[in-house]
Design brief:
This protein is an alpha/beta fold and 250 residues long. The chain has two domains: 162 residues, Spore Coat Polysaccharide Biosynthesis Protein SpsA, Chain A (Alpha-Beta Complex), CATH 3.90.550.10; 78 residues, no CATH class. The protein is 41% helix and 22% strand. The strands form three sheets. Strands 3-2-1-4-9-6-12 form a seven-stranded mixed β-sheet, sandwiched between helices. Strands 5-13-7-8 form a four-stranded mixed β-sheet. A two-stranded antiparallel ribbon has the order 10-11. A hairpin with a 2-residue loop joins strand 7 and strand 8. The longest helix is centred in the last third of the chain and has 27 residues. The protein is globular, with a radius of gyration of 19 Å.
Amino acid sequence: MSVSLAAVILTHNEEVHIRACIESVRWADRVIVFDSFSDDQTVALAEQAGAEVIQHPWNGYASQRNAALEAVDTDWILFVDADERSSPAQAAEVRALLAASEHHGYWIPRHNYIFGRLTRHAGWYPDYQMRLLHRGHARYDPAREVHELVVLDGEAGFMTEPFVHYNYTSVRQFREKQGRYVRYDAQILKEQGIKPRPHKFITMPLRQFIWRFITLKGYRDGLHGLRLSLLMAWYELQKYRHLQRLYWYP
């Protein structure tokens, strides 16, 4: 009995990436662009490239992925971000795994390109993402707005062939995205009852830097790893500053 697979690409204004992403997953039985009403050329380009397009209003990552799980009637779904690329080697591994059907979900590693450079340390590899899901046995926790959490029936497996992820292309993009994470993570800390004690403005950024640069071997990426470790330490400081503001202005 054949097993069907759809590659589902979540999009909003991804005209820069969408063609190349679609090309990389043509090996799937269906390629579906699940779009949240882009106002650039994303939809037109996706249709020109031969992908199916479904539009659904945006209400957070978890909600959007759950909507795709409901809307796409294949046995399995491979979620791919528009700035990610699959490969023939990954295609072969996926087909072999689906034929064996040992798990209902699989973690996929990613090769992250940050500022144009493959980054193998400082926490950016293996960077596992659970993206290959049996549609009837997986859903996303709606309480997690970002850093989505998959609720899976049973244990997950691990793949070896990675996505290529063209992550941050510039420091500006890095700052904008990390700024959003800072606000979200600070809110989580507040909900957990964690208070911005004065010493944490020093110790937490320092711990972040040591963890990234030493423990996770960011030093192996040279000055690139040093810069990323320092940037993440800086945003750890910003997280606690934002946490402080949440207590001041609840």
